[in-house]
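Late entry, written up from scratch paper. The run itself happened at the end of the previous shift, but nothing got recorded in the book at the time, so transcribing now.
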Amino acid sequence: MLQHSDPLDRAFHALADPGRRWMVDRLTRGPASVSELAQPLDMSMSAVVQHLKVLEASGLVRSTKTGRIRTCQVQPDALRAAEGWLNTRRLEWERRLDRLGDYLATTNGDEQ
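Output as recorded:
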């Protein structure tokens, strides 16, 4: 089985699940308690906690406990690392498609 030792691998593994992506999306708008995160989800509290453990292990989310309330918040640096990786790929493909467009523009004129 693939071990997710690289921080980027752990981030993408965590983001592979739609429920966890929803949690991260919700947390980008501000901190929330585990109960607040669980309320709109169609899953048990234990499932929510398991998903949060994956998000914490990936570095995307950090939680703190005050009394009986566990509050979660997103960790922007981990998201920036994933965003940086994606942006590098996007820019690479944009350059390739621009070169293809230039090539097609020059060859299309030759055929007429």
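The chain has one domain: 7-110.
(Scratch paper discarded after transcription.)
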